[in-house]
């Protein structure tokens, strides 16, 4: 520190005013009054005791922090005010560096004071802690070239580093933990810029020669900080002024918030391929995030959190973003975006963020992401909830690539932002191969005993200790099934936060007992919870009389309306639906229409809005006139319920004049198929719900349904519906209906979805009807009554039918068929079908019959073909990278030039298989049978698992080098002159 600055700091305050009229004052009181007048600040009289004592500025600034906190005396104003007086009265100039040091030190003290004031418990421990650090930096110097940089970006300056180190040591000495001391000093460092710019502009005009931060620039800066503060209050804190945003913190209709019931969750780090990384331990999700934020070697990594439905992804984002606001701001500024709210993906993530965040600090500043003094932590919640437009046009792949590139860009010194992305695991099934390589992936684990006990402790504070203890006894009862409480081999429903709450709430209200779940498997138990929670809400939580007064509708009618709302939400993209859409659909339902009209007559107002408010519905992200379910799982379940109701109607038969006929004609059936299934409604979750609901229904008639849908399917394959005139063109009618409701779609899109959804139902009916040993049925076994082959009439040259369907679907977006139908091909009969170059990436073709099918050049990347029958199939040049072929029948299969890298062929039957020039790098061949297989010119490496491989003695054309390796493993006998062995080395 220069001599002149040190002299100023140690100058008696009285002496600052002895040069002029102040010297005429008769006493200390007069001096103080003159000082107050000169500084034009009434609060300056707060320092009267030190002036009377002849104290220096350093003495004032070294006052115990507790006293200054209590008096709320602004540090920076004292220093800059007195410096201003000194400059004017003494006619002396400090150097630029001297001014920067003084103003910056006191701006830092002002910043720190704000955080210490919030740490009320610790303040009492450090009465002398934050006495100004000025006395500790007597020897500190700041070169002129670094002084300007200090003003422009204080937290990166050498002065900031020096001050932060000193303050951290003082805080630790006073009893703060190392972590808290570091956090407080760092927060003060990042926040200093706010005070520094303002204080600098209060210096005399002499400083303008330095050309740093004009008053106009400071006002712009201040407006930005005010906007950030407003955003954090309205969008991140649990206490916004907007009722809709505040309601998102509420746990359904309970009087408490998610913050009160949330417990930290455990995560398991994953490999690049999405498998559990066995080299890494489980860790708390919040701890994992903090570790990656602090790790300088992983600043280019996207924090990628995946999990199944109801595991707490969205609640984590909300609660942890608020914790960042409270504990780490402004080191990190949290930005929370529900991806369902993104209307359209832009050309870059930066553009998408700008169009999504409605805040002045974003809208008014094109350089908001390159400001050195702000660093954002983006929470992008729900990658599986991107609008349907994005999902059908490669939007998810594009979006994830944009995130990866954005995070790489953020490693530049001007940015430094980080991104956390969350979403459902299933949404990644078809994009694993295209994921960016800079994702740090974890999966949220089911709640363990520790997390459940923490949750129950919180529940006891809300529901009462007695109720919490009773619920714990319920879960620990020997009669409580593992599917409910969980076991080593099975994840229990009570291990998912959403379902745990529903169970606890119903148990609290005496709506749950152990008999409820007797003989119910996993999906049955989950459906029971949703069904009982619906009944609980409609008849217990809100009394039936209350519902009646609110809507004039009985519980059954309300349930019918909610199922329609669930369907509308899914048809609109899975996030929210317009009330107009729900109302129009109900108007087409005679029974529901009559109920609504009667209720409206009595209430003299539209009862639908009230009915929708009865369950867990809230205003939608599209604004007034739209609704969304509080949790996506509810809309999925209710959508499945509605589809089940319609399917049952399709199979109803009425007797008329001694004749039987369908209650719904073929023409009406076809119209309703497009109306019901003309959008991607049959997700994996909904299909699972749907078929369990159907199988549990006494009204389900699978044979009739199969027959009617198969007839539709054959007509659809011939393009009978899409080529009709306008009056009879059901795809076009559905398209126009959706477009009027602002749901983006097209006629071909509707046609493709309707056909693929019917195909899913036919495949599921077929799979459910097959013998347990399918597809390897014993000779003479009779075909099932519900046997479905998509290329039936193979003798009539229809073996290309499925291939044409795949190409038709993939005309929308490559991989559409595999994404939509692929998960439902278990036990499918595709024998002898021509599937040349078909895309089955990540498809689930387990136990399917593909005997003699032509799959030449097909894409079977990561496909599940376990136990599939591929006897004599043609897989030449097929891409089987990471495919699961365990226990598959590959006898006599042509695998010439096939890429089997990292494939699982454990216990596979490869007798007489042709593996010429096949790539077996990293393949698992444990217990496989290679008898008489042709291994000519194969590629392999040291990672191939040959454990217990059978049939090698009769395998032909084994490369010479491989023979040597196999002998070392004692899997092959001594060298023989048998023609079975080739001298080929690969």
TrEMBL record:
**SUPFAM superfamilies listed in its UniProt record:** P-loop containing nucleoside triphosphate hydrolases, Pentapeptide repeat-like
Residue ranges annotated for the NACHT N-terminal Helical domain, each copy included: 44-258
- Coiled-coil segments: none
Q: What is this protein called?
A: Pentapeptide repeat-containing protein
Q: Which organism is this entry from? A: Leptothoe spongobia TAU-MAC 1115
